[in-house]
Amino acid sequence: MLSQAMTNRLNEQINLEIYSAHLYLQMSSWCAHKALEGCAAFLSQHADEEMSHMRRLLNYMHETGALAILGGMEAPPHTFQSLKEMFSKVYEHEQFVTRKINELVQLADTEPDYATLQFLQWYVAEQHQEEFLFKSILDKIELIGTEGQGLFFIDQEIGKLAQSKSTTTMQPIPPA
Q1: What's the structural domain count of the chain?
Q2: Is 172 among the domain residues?
């Protein structure tokens, strides 16, 4: 059984994952509007991934007998000055999510709640990958630039990331 503090924090994380999915869908829409199909596909796929993160948390809550509470949320931003600004915001958001996961791990460790601590290790590794991914996208944007054909090449490169994920056999998320 989860403590009330852990239940509350896991509910916050569930809602943060839903917000992340909405944020990336909105960014995908912005990219599609700007004819950046590769970025749009990548961000749409990433929104789906965020929802799978939410479902994993939701299932864990169910398994522990806790009630998951889905709350309202603020609408994500829908305009950006540039592709670089948008991906900078994604990177900042992922760093925020990492801090929230680390806070959950800290709570699980201090309670102690070893089952939840073990469950959260997947999220720790996932956030490391997320930050690395978006930092590498920003590095490519910096390297290639977005002037002239640079924007086209960036869109192509990011589109390849979406294609490589869709062609990779996705393993189902094991139950928590």
Answers
A1: 1
A2: no
Which residues are annotated as part of the binding site for Fe cation?
17, 50, 53, 94, 127
Question: Could you tell me if residue 88 is inside a domain?
Answer: yes
106, two tokens:
């800290």
The residue segments making up the domain with residue 90 are 4-167
Q: Which residues are annotated as a binding site?
A: 17, 50, 53, 94, 127
Cα separation of 58 and 75, whole Å?
22
In this structure, what is the dihedral angle of CA atoms 57, 58, 60, 64, given to the nearest 10 degrees?
Answer: 140
Question: pTM of the prediction?
Answer: 0.90
Residues of the chain with pLDDT under 50: 167-174, 176
Residue entry with tokens 């990219």: 31
Please name the residue that has the structure tokens 């596909």.
Answer: 41
CATH code, 9: 1.20.1260.10
148: left (phi over 0), alpha (psi -120 to 50) or beta: left
